[in-house]
Specification:
The chain is α+β, with helices and mostly antiparallel strands and 301 residues long. It has 2 domains: 64 residues, no CATH class; 191 residues, no CATH class. Strands 1-2-3 form a 3-stranded antiparallel beta sheet. α3 crosses α4 and α4 crosses α7.
Length: 301
């Protein structure tokens, strides 16, 4: 597998006409026999990075600070991906789906059903993978409800069983090694199906109960609607990006929790790449911050 990284610069013209040069870390990879590139990180403007170069070099080389030199120590506590969820949330609101789902699904005593539907829909649009893989997303992405409370997975039971699994089969002629071997072959087939899935594709379906199958298909169809709406907004704004490329671009927008020496913990949204800013501007998103959660309720399981 080809996996080389390099540093590239790109010039971007601002709305005021000034041209700034940005530094990126680019990774080369091979897909279907073709070499492609993707942006791993946007480091920021070249002129600003030049001023930080001495500090950056000291951090990378592990060199202690010079005696008498004063600077604020920055400790990044968390940098969760926020951009794709922000975009899907914006489209969700534009279509009036919050109130529609509240009316159709009713209310819940814990997490509202509309918020749960939003998470499933966002997962389908951003990364069309199994709903079971969705459980790990709150650990890397900032997934929150309408109040801004971050979803936190309940791992206690899973951690007790981590590394153990049970295989059941109706094939009585299979011994234990054959049953394990057959199960592993099945996972290989399912992995191949997942690579073929796109936003609209609905197979393979792991549900057996009819209401869940219908919900699975409904989420896939609604995700397609949001994808088309996103592409229409981009086209209207003259942004030459497909919906998947746009969602990949805004993945550089992160909700960052950090601490500066002598100051309380602070939070803020990173600026993202130039393409990310183009996408947000095309959608009319001027305030990228997530909702402020109620006091003492920053998370919900």
């Amino acid at each position: 597998m080809l996996c080389d990284m390099c540093v590239r610069t790109v010039k971007v013209r601002s709305s005021g006409g000034a041209v700034h040069e940005y530094v990126r870390v680019v990774e080369a990879y091979r897909e279907n026999g073709k070499v492609k590139q993707r942006v791993v990180a946007d480091l920021g403007r070249k002129d600003l990075l030049s001023a930080l170069l001495p500090k950056l070099r000291r951090v990378l080389e592990g060199t202690p600070a010079i005696d008498g030199q004063t600077h604020e120590d920055l400790d990044v506590l968390d940098a969760s991906t926020w951009g794709p969820l922000l975009v899907v949330r914006h489209l969700f609101e534009q279509l009036g789906l919050w109130s529609l789902f509240e009316e159709v699904l009713g209310r819940s005593k814990t997490v509202p059903y509309a918020d749960r539907a939003f998470v499933l829909l966002a997962n389908r649009l951003i990364r069309p993978e199994s709903e079971h893989a969705l459980a790990s997303r709150p650990e890397t992405d900032f997934v929150c409800d309408r109040q801004g409370r971050r979803f936190v997975p309940h791992w206690q039971r899973e951690k007790r069983l981590e590394g153990k699994y049970v295989i059941t089969t109706t094939e009585k002629d299979l011994d234990v090694p054959d049953a394990v071997r057959t199960y592993k072959d099945l996972t290989d087939v399912e992995r191949g199906f997942r690579h073929l899935k796109d936003v609209l594709a609905v197979r393979p379906i792991y549900h057996r109960v009819e209401p869940r199958v219908r919900a699975h298909i409904f989420v896939a169809a609604l995700a397609l609607l949001l994808e088309r709406l996103l592409e229409r907004r981009l086209k209207e704004a003259g942004v030459d990006l497909s919906a998947p490329d746009a969602l990949e671009a805004v993945a550089t927008v992160r909700w960052v929790t950090f601490h500066l020496a002598g100051q309380p913990v602070r939070r803020g949204v990173s600026g993202g790449s130039p393409h990310a800013r183009q996408v947000l501007k095309a959608l009319g998103i001027s305030d990228p911050k997530p909702p402020t959660p109620p006091e003492n309720q920053i998370t919900v399981i």
